[in-house]
Amino acid sequence: MREQDFIPVGYKKSVQSGKVTWQSPSNIALVKYWGKKENQIPANPSVSFTLKNCKTITTLEFQKKETRGEDFDFELFFEGNKKDDFKPKITKFFERIEKYSPFLKDYKLIIQTENTFPHSSGIASSASGMSALALCLMSLEKQLNPELTEDYFLKKASFLARLGSGSACRSIEGELIEWGKHESTAGSSDLFGIKYPYKVHEVFKTYQDTILLVDKGQKQVSSTLGHNLMHGHPFAEARFEQAHANLEKLQVVFETGNLPDFINIVESEALSLHAMMMSSEPYFILMKPNTLEIINKIWQYRETTGVPVCFTLDAGANVHVLYPEEHKEEVLAFIKNELVAYCEKGQYICDSIGKGAEKL
Ligand code: DP6
Hints:
Elements lengths: L16 E15 L4 E2 L3 E2 L3 E19 L8 E6 L2 E2 L4 H11 L9 E9 L10 H19 L5 H15 L11 E4 L13 E3 L6 H4 L2 E5 L10 H6 L7 H21 L2 H20 L10 H17 L4 E4 L5 E5 L4 H12 L8 E5 L5 E2 L1
Parallel strand pairs: 5-7
Antiparallel strand pairs: 1-4, 1-14, 2-3, 4-7, 4-8, 5-6, 8-9, 10-12, 10-13, 11-12
Helix pairs in contact: 2-3, 6-7
The structure holds ligand DP6.
Ligand DP6 binds next to helix 5.
């Protein structure tokens, strides 16, 4: 599929009004997307577990206007309250996707959105939020063009979500999603995420992710800013090559279920991501002292018990603890006994690998 394939050539039906709701999950990257080119094209391919419990639920109401508007006409509610401070981000998203969703200015839109995870948890809601909104817009497009195939619907939803937030394109389907052109992955694309197309070992199908909320405050440096600092970064090229190589290695791991190799690649990716931040100009650190305490505790625990538990990080201080379902009981006991003390207000979220977004 090429970019032009996402530009509609006209609509078959006229739709006056309606309402649609989607719930869309967050995701956690194993190989990280960090650095991008024009138009939200990733500098390297990435792969993620789709999550199950951390979700955004978005309802889109649409009413056709008598005459097409000059500007986008929408209202936004977050957890029932009008949220005008989110509007610039959505306006920017609409501007980026207008070419692919030219119906936007024909409608008055009301967007109602809520998250299943606590508001100020430090968990980014852009992946689940942008993917849920993209899916709602695709449902409207499907009413205008009922012949759209399921495959096109999902690819375009991912394509649109990417233009809202890169990682959001990995939140449409489950369970393992790859985004970005990668030589050894057939069908991989910079334009949208695809379901990982090769064999996946049983152990990964029920993998657990317990998210330790180390710091619930606002991040000092946004992801978008961090991505931009990869332009002219002294280690950028080596980092992008490393991501390609790690994806290659993960292909074998996904097939064999080799957990020591999985742990090695995933932790190295997390630390490389933060190493990029620490060596940007300007440099910055998003980990907190408790992030490091937790990492050291996990290493100690793994060393002494042999339980295959590891961590990953996204662009923040929170720690995602990853482990196979068969070790759930003991790892949760370890988390309660030894790690909760490092979480802000003792808070953590139990999640696991999920199957993707759902229409409600
Ligand atoms: C560290 O998708 O939030 O979580 O495209 O600018 O919206 P934008 O960035 P975003 O970046 C996510 C970065 C990451 C790694 C990852 O999810 O792959």
